[in-house]
Specification:
There is one protein chain. The protein is an alpha+beta fold and 204 residues long. It contains five helices and nine strands, in the order αββαβαααββββββ. The strands form three sheets. A four-stranded antiparallel β-sheet has the order 4-5-6-7, with helices on one face. A three-stranded antiparallel β-sheet has the order 2-1-3. Strands 8-9 form a two-stranded antiparallel sheet.
């Protein structure tokens, strides 16, 4: 008799890396080549945005036109970003008066919000509710901003590198808040209803 073990049937979403429940419907995609992965129903749009091919689709993927990436060249672009978020609870400071770390956090939030990960986080928030958000600017040869989005039972951590070809990437995920480095638990941001993140920067 063949014994089916839990590890033989356990599946996870290739986009949000959430373990799929027994019997949960998943869609199979290929990022390229002969490898096929499972994608949960909440992340199929993100897989399409990445140009992945859905099982049964034509072999040539249709990659959507890249979103216009807003760059922070001045005050006008910053205000344009915030006008698209009417739920923001504060008036935005003048961008040129922000500290370098604050500027980095604002730009990182904008890049994250333009990525497919925003919709992934929005889908998770529908199930888990309000989240804690941390944005931490890391100095170095290649400066990065670490964005952590956390609930009581799960957390996701993203690295945002404006100068990297892949601006946003999922770096780590976990289940216990105690597993997070204390540097990443200064909750200085908030999560919008659409999954977008914003730093809590006081008005100047």
């Amino acid at each position: 008799m063949t014994v089916v073990r839990k590890q033989d049937v356990q599946r996870s979403c290739a986009i949000c890396h959430r373990t799929l429940l027994m019997g949960e419907r998943a869609v199979r995609f290929t990022p390229g080549g002969d490898d096929w992965v499972d994608v949960c129903a909440l992340c199929t749009t993100a897989a399409d945005d990445h140009g992945w091919i859905k099982e049964g689709s034509p072999t040539t993927p249709i990659v959507p036109e890249a979103r216009r990436r807003r760059r922070f060249g001045g005050l006008a672009s910053l205000l344009e970003t915030r006008r698209a978020e009417p739920e923001a609870h504060r008036s935005e400071p003048v961008y040129r008066r922000l500290s370098p770390d604050e500027q980095a956090m604002v730009e990182a939030a904008d890049l994250f919000n333009d990525s497919a990960y925003r919709r992934t986080i929005a889908g998770i928030a529908k199930s888990l509710g309000d989240a804690r958000v941390s944005l931490l600017s890391l100095s170095g040869v290649n400066p990065e901003v670490v964005i952590t989005v956390a609930w009581d039972i799960s957390w996701y951590q993203y690295r945002v590198s404006p100068d990297s070809p892949q601006h946003v990437r999922l770096a780590e995920r976990g289940y216990e808040l105690d597993d997070l480095d204390p540097r990443f638990t200064t909750w200085n941001g908030h999560l919008g209803g659409d999954g977008g993140v914003s730093p809590d920067i006081p008005r100047l």
